[in-house]
Amino acid sequence: MRPIFARLARDVPAMLGLGIVVFVLLLAVLGPWIAPYPGDASASHLLRRLKPPSLDYPFGTDNLGRDIFSRVILGARGALQIALAVVVASMLIGVPLGLLAGYRSGWLSETIMRITDVVLAIPQLVLALALAQLLSPSLESAMLALSLTYWPFFTRIVYAETRRLSGSLFVDALRGVGAGTSRIVFLHILPNALSPVIVRATIGLGFTILVAAVLGFLGMGATPPAPDWGLAIAESRTYLPKAWWYAAFPGVAILITVMGFNLLGDGLRDLVDPRIRRSR
Fold it and tell me: To which protein family does this belong (predicted)?
C-alpha cells in the first residue's frame, strides 16, 4: 500500500485533485459550522439583496439577500450526497450485471450486454433529462434519473475484466479443485476487477456533480430554497451581467470540484493501468 501512495505522491496533478477533493469533503462535513450565516442561508433579507462582494459578504448576496458564500459552502454537502448516492447505486446495478454477463455465456449474457450497449449509445445527459422530465422535479428524481443512466459504464468495465480474468490460470486451478461459481466470482474475480471500477467511480463522482448541476439549472433537480449550485446559476440569469457574482461563484465551485475529481481519477487510472506505467 505504501508504494502505491508513494507513486501517487509523485503525480502532481493527482495530488492537486486529491487536495481539492479533501477540501470539498471537509466543506461538506463542516459546512454548517464554517458558513458565516448558516441559520439564515434560506431566509429572505430583501434590504441587502444583490449586494456585491464585500468583507461582510465575500461572495455577495443573491436576489433574496441571502449570503452566497454560505450557500456555496452548504451546497457542497448536497452535491456530494447526490454524487455518492448515484455512483453507489450505479455500482450496485452495474457490477453484478457485469460479473454475470462476463462469467456466463449464452442468451442471458448477450441480453445484458445488448441492453448495456443501447443505453451507452444514448448520451447520458440527454437520457437523464428525458427520465427527469417524466418524473416530478425533485432531488430524488434527479438521483434516480442519473442512476438509471450511469450503471452501464460499470457493467461494461466489469464485463471486460471478468472475461479477461475468467480465462486465467488461477481460475482454471480453482475450477480444478472444485471451487463453486460464487466463490470464484466474488472472492477471486471481483477483487481483481475492482481497480478500474474505482477509477471509473472517482471520475464519475465529478461528472455526476456536473450533470446534477445541469438538471438543477433546468429545474429538474433540487428545488428552492435548497442551496444547490446549479439552481443558484439558474436563478441568477435574470440579474446578469450586473450581478455577475450571483452566477460566478457557484459556477467556480462546480468547476473546481469537477476538476478535482477528474485529476484524481486520471492519477488513479495511470497508477492502476500497467500499459500506461510501461509507456512512461
Answer: Belongs to the binding-protein-dependent transport system permease family.
Q: What is the pLDDT of residue 259?
A: 94
**Continuous H helices in 11-66:** 12-34
168 neighbors 142 (Cβ within 8 angstroms) = no
Give me the residues of the chain with pLDDT under 50, please: 276-280
Domain presence at residue 77:
yes
pLDDT (0 to 100) of residue 21: 94
| pLDDT (0 to 100) of residue 133 | 77
Predicted model pTM: 0.86
Given this model, what pLDDT does residue 19 score? Answer: 93
At 223 the pLDDT is 75
Q: Which domain holds residue 200?
A: 11-32+59-270
Q: 171: closest CA among 156, 183, 159, 160? A: 183
Q: What is the distance of C-alpha 156 from the center of its chain?
A: 18
Q: What's the CA gap between 203 and 192, in Å, rounded?
A: 20
Residue 278: the pLDDT is: 44
CATH of the domain at 137: 1.10.3720.10
Please give the angle made by the CA atoms of 101, 107 and 113, to the nearest 5 degrees: 45
- List Cα–Cα distances, 85 to 39, 76, 92, in angstroms: 26, 14, 11
Residue 5 lies in a domain: no
**Residue 177 belongs to a domain:** yes
Q: For residue 143, is it within any domain?
A: yes
Domain count, the chain: 1
* pLDDT given at position 179: 74
Distance linking the first and last C-alpha atoms of the chain: 21
Nearest to 139 by CA among 212, 208, 87: 212
